[in-house]
Write a structure and sequence with these properties.
The chain has about 150 residues and is an alpha+beta fold. It has a single domain, classed as Alpha-D-Glucose-1,6-Bisphosphate, Chain A, domain 4. It contains two helices and seven strands. Strands 1-7-6-5-4-3-2 form a seven-stranded antiparallel sheet. The longest helix has 21 residues. The termini are far apart. The model has no long low-confidence stretch (mean pLDDT about 90).
Length: about 150
């Protein structure tokens, strides 16, 4: 494997994709109350160039990730975050996370993509971070399922 790569995963959600997209593009401060692995979020959000600091649990450790919003596309329901600080950058020179929601009628599909460059060859692909993003999605799914009558 090379130092650069891309991993992605798709998962279907039962609540509306517009809500999921809005949470990451406009209201990330609501996410910690829905997810076990996220302890807090600070900063500005809702516009390209906004910087957000996430506090989260990963691999049994509390970590932070400072991210800048690189893109928000309302039509494509896409938000792109570039990690600019935190423990992730100890292993990866670059780390870009994209969340895209595809809606077709009652079907809503979330695609998480991580583009990365490892600091050195021995560093594993960021599959554990991809799993973390799936856990967030599941927690948000469970939260919204509990809101239904």
């Amino acid at each position: 494997m090379g130092l650069k790569g891309k991993v992605l995963v798709q998962v279907e959600i039962s609540f509306h994709g517009d809500i999921y997209h809005q949470l990451f593009s406009e209201r990330p401060h609501h996410i910690p109350s829905m997810c076990k692995g996220i302890h807090g979020v600070e900063g500005q959000w809702g516009t390209v160039g906004s910087i957000i600091t996430w506090k989260f649990s990963h691999d049994g450790k509390t970590k932070t990730a400072e991210e800048v919003i690189e893109a928000i596309d309302e039509k494509e329901k896409l938000v792109k975050f570039k990690v600019i600080g935190g423990e992730i950058l100890e292993d990866y020179k670059s780390f870009i996370i994209t969340c895209e929601v595809h809606t077709d009628g009652d079907n809503h599909l979330v695609t998480w993509t991580i583009e990365y460059e490892k600091v050195k060859e021995e560093i594993p692909e960021p599959l554990s971070y991809l799993e973390f993003l799936l856990d967030i999605t599941k927690d948000m799914e469970d939260h919204h399922a509990n809101l239904k009558p």
